[in-house]
Amino acid sequence: MQKGKMTEVYDGDWLRQCDLIGVRLIEMSYPAGFQRALHTHEHASFHFSFQGGCVEYEGRHVRESKPFTLSFQPPGHEHSCRCFNEGLQAISLEMESDWMSRLLDYSVRFEHPGNFQSPQIQWLAARLRHELAMMEPTSPLVIEALALELAVEASRCQLKSSERQWPRWLSRARDFLHAHYQEPLSLRDVAREAEVHPVHLARTFRRHFHCTVGEYVRRLRIEFACQQISHADASLLDIAVAAGFYDQSQFSRAFKQVMGVTPAEFRASLRSR
Description:
CATH class of the largest domain: Mainly Beta
Largest sheet: 8 strands, antiparallel
CATH topology of the largest domain: Jelly Rolls
Number of helices: 10
């Protein structure tokens, strides 16, 4: 491994670590109920939970980081945290100021703490974890590329979140999709719930979410499937049906379209750690 000058210290059990120039990747495990007192990070820090989660306390604000969530802490941000009862297993990615400046050159900016979720984030985190476990001669280069890609994807999630100033009926439509995405849905079903015309729903939804209603539902199903594949031993067919797909073939096509790999390849990458 290439050694940098990273000096950040974490509690918990260090399972694996890779130090590069200006970036450090660590896989760590924390016991149930573990608490870390008030502290700051010297460098920008991303944390992704594969198992369990934690509650972060930031002054009067409380933020919950659930499983399969990427959290970000800017350098110098004071906070404390407490793990859930099942403990926590996660990877931590630290970036020095030079790396953050490189991102800023491309308008990728992180100024405040935040939590991010997307199927792409889950996949990138899984690939980082896998690369850390195998550590071949080319792994440092792969880790650098994945680290940058992860930060860019989190920035996109942050931008989409900041743009969400939509009418109340659109919030009802979104909530309806989150509650029923595993069921057969039509545009008219969603429009009826939102009490608007289907054409108006389609146009407004695309303007705010940058995708169609159908694409949004597919992403919700794939996100659910990623979580099931990551922590359940159910068959891919059972996961496909539970997610709302007609069969495994339709599921595999949709999964690869969103994630870039098949469900079987995604599961294999997690189990080859």
